[in-house]
Amino acid sequence: MAGLKVWGFDLPDVELGADVRAYLGALPVARPTVEWVWAEMDRIWRDFGLDNRNFLSKQPIAAYYSHPVWTMNGIFTATDPVSVGHRTAIASHLVALHPARVADYGGGFGELALAIAVRRPETRVDIVEPFPSPMGVARVAHLPQVGFVRDTGEGGYDAMIAQDVLEHVEDPIGLAAQLAESVRPGGWLIFANCFFPVIECHLPRTFFLRHTFRWVMEAMGLRFLGVVRGAEHALVFERRGELDPTAARRAEGRARLIGPFLNFPPLNLVLRGFKKLLRG
What we know:
Helix 8 (172-181) links the parallel strand 6 (157-163) and strand 7 (183-192). The strands form two sheets. Strands 5-4-3-6-7-9-8 form a seven-stranded mixed β-sheet, with helices on both faces. Strands 1-2 form a two-stranded antiparallel ribbon. The N and C termini lie far apart (56 Å). It has helices at 18-25, 34-47, 61-65, 69-79, 81-95, 111-119, 134-140, 172-181, 213-220, 245-262, 265-271, and strands spanning 5-6, 9-10, 101-105, 124-128, 146-149, 157-163, 183-192, 222-228, 231-239. It is an alpha/beta fold. It is globular and about 50 Å long. Helix 5 (81-95) crosses helix 6 (111-119).
């Protein structure tokens, strides 16, 4: 792969299978639109016969997330001005907190970890990624403070980031609780969610959280601090102490009832006051 460039992005020299080389070599010469990227990800989703209306445990979801379409997506987000702007905003917000240890859950291609490392080299960044790509691993290999790990281990992180993660999993609240437990009291969590039907791998069963996620997290015991300037979809929380997963599950139950109505703009105005019920 030495010397291969995709959309102006230099790919690292790593050993790849013929199928990966063929896929990357067949991509459009010029960087496509984000709509093309979404359509391509949906095409691969359908090729695997996946169905977001059914539970994924008996479907080949691991094969989908290991497909080189995700390397393509990583290259796109590394070169797309909107994606770069969001990542820069999140990295800048985070390093201003001076964390010593950060976990980037679902960090994929490593772009956010690299953005943090450039701005604060003394910060240790663990990219928690169950499906790491060889290119992603190669891109951070020269940085001793950045590395790929399979899980959060014993936790104790100063900050946790989950960008474009929770909409892909069947139990987003359970995962959010797990990530919060991996952060020390007084530490921070940044959740950048997209609970919208943008692509097939955004699971419809998570969309009730589009307008209610913040209140469920507050019920868990996290303190909402605001949004990241320049990436307003990224919500910032502080872990104050012991978490209350039971209260979060109760709030989740109420969110399942109210959330679908809040997703419709005309009803949003009528039902805005109902959000207060989630604080109970």
